[in-house]
Amino acid sequence: MAYDYDLFVIGGGSAGVRCARISAQHGARVAVAEERFWGGTCVNVGCVPKKIMVNAAEYGMWAEDARAFGWDLTVHGHDWAKLAAARDAEVARLSAIYGRLLGGVGVTMFDARATFVDAHTLDVGGKRVTAERIVIAVGGQAVRPEIPGAELGMLSDDVFTLKALPKRLVVVGAGYIALEFACVFRALGAEVDVVYRADLPLRGFDADIRADLAEALVAQGIRLHPGRKPARLEAAGLVLDNGATLAADKVLFALGRKPYVGGLHLDRAGVECTANGAVEVDDDHATTTRHIHAIGDVTDRVNLTPMATAVGHALADTLFGGKPRRADYRNVASAVFTSPPIGTVGMTEADAAAQGPVDVYVARFTPMRHTISQRAGRKTTMKLVVCQATQKVLGAHMLGEDSAEIMQAVGIAVMMGATKQDFDRTIGIHPTAAEEFVTMRTRTREAGVRPAAAE
Prior knowledge:
alpha/beta
């Protein structure tokens, strides 16, 4: 059968655009359909605009801290409209680049929603097209809780359309999206409450980092409400499960994201989903219909933009480049842009200890800048988790300024299988916070010791 395209990609985000562009460079006839905005969540309502807002929050703190260093500065307040205009202009610039990248290699672009008619046929904005191979790269969408009045609250996408800074914000959730926005709005001048079910924020991260972040959040004036759930949202504020009401101008629901598969009619193509609603894929990202693949957040594996682009590139090389390969999901470094930020790579202490004995090294200190500024809640925590048997560094975690920048380089070492001795013989750069990763000599504790060894 002659198909309209060798490859059709559903979704114009990071994963889909990379897969489409590289496939076209390999000589494939490629089309992409995007129903909302080119560049996907990250460029438009995620990483990029959020990081710009993080930068804005940092400038306010730096201006205040500058007084301790002899600068005579006065902060008169923040211009929300000016920030929003600059942020939106940068988002528009980056989104346009995605279109130029695809057009430059001959990819056909559809500004429309694509849904399955059968395993090789798609309805694209009312037009039917066929493809030999199809890639599902539709990403995810924010989740709204099932409580009375939930429609009155914001989701993360809505933050970027706010016309003014709310004076009182309640954030429901304690994942990275929730906490990043909590820190941004607090630094820009809002009163902020954070409501979450667990004892500590950031479920899934290392326990030391979680505990120290909670202290840092409180130190900057964010009110935490652990062990609580929302019961209903009213005009006056959010009512909690214990009956208390948190007054708020805005309530942000940041309770996670789910794969955006609704209405794709996957069943018509024989594509199955997991119990959690993600598209089911094998190690080669093939779905239950072998010529249809799924990549990015719709698979709900490691939901990070660089991971999505790496998988999209590897799949294009495999399908059309004559270079079969897989992107590596192990030891993927990541960051949380809270205040202070977090950088992490590899295993948490708990996960590593579950596999056997580990040595744990932890350092806590006040960075030089804040011995002068005396800003509360700006201590740094650095941690290495080391396998006792092999001495390989299984995990590295940091809470503190510049942690994201530092962890990118540490991630290379962990990915290469560096040992604690490799870290020890590396000469530090002084004076920096980063040098602590290569100067920790005294073990803080051991964990995961087998009963026989403990005796």
